Thiamine-monophosphate kinase
Amino acid sequence: MTSNAATLLGPGDDAAVVAVPDGRVVVTTDLLVDGRHFRRDWSTPYDVGRKAAAQNMADIAAMGAVPVALVVGLATPPDIPAFWAERLADGLREEAARTGAAVVGGDVVRSDTVVVAVTALGDLQGRTPVTRGGARPGDVVAVIGRLGWAEAGLAALRRGFRTPRAAVEAHRRPEPPYEAGPIAADRGATSMIDVSDGLLGDLGHVAVASRIRIDVESAALPVADVVAEVAAACGVDPLRWVLTGGEDHALAATFPDRAAVPDGWVVIGRAHEPAGETGDVVVDGRRYPGSGFSHFAADA
């Protein structure tokens, strides 16, 4: 466990006390289950700790807030070595340190399956929270962070490979662009979301919440060399992984115009009046098949 300037009372009591000067607390929580969200033969406990912290703090950043504290629950079989839990804690602590956050408490219980539950707290620092429901027709859509990397790493691992290392490490330890969330909020982002379920799937959440239609321009999407390399080896179009691959924890947001888009973000499309009441996402004017989400299931 760790502490920072916001930690008024850290581990050792019934609960921690954390100062959030803004007066509002952004809260999110996620679970990682062994065999579903990670595999112990693929990832070290340190990797799991980094990933558990990252996926929660990315949600905090997507609201335009700064992570300040994490609380961790660990359910574990009794035969897990002590070093496994210790290295998990190391990963949690070091990922939290990337944002200045601290691990301020938690709990450990006996279980048949390893489960890591993380709750993250964030400080808006006076900002208005950026939700999924604020996008407007005419807004530009932009992304920052990796897309398709974790999916490429997962594909390599499933085939028994540990290379390319950059892709495999991206699956084990995502690298969310934490600082970009608050900066986007300061620049007037009208909506924002953490890309955890795939770009199309998460833009779909924005489209539904904002009652808009989003048109993604495939030519504008960044396709990293490592993603293209693994995709070629697997006989897959790399664009599919960029559009539908999950667990990269990039950020996607809408802005009033290109001038509002901060440095480092890539404009990939635009928001339009909805074609229906629930919102929609298309790629180059057409619905993209096979994304795994019902609102993208029908081909054009």
The two ends are 52 Å apart (CA to CA).
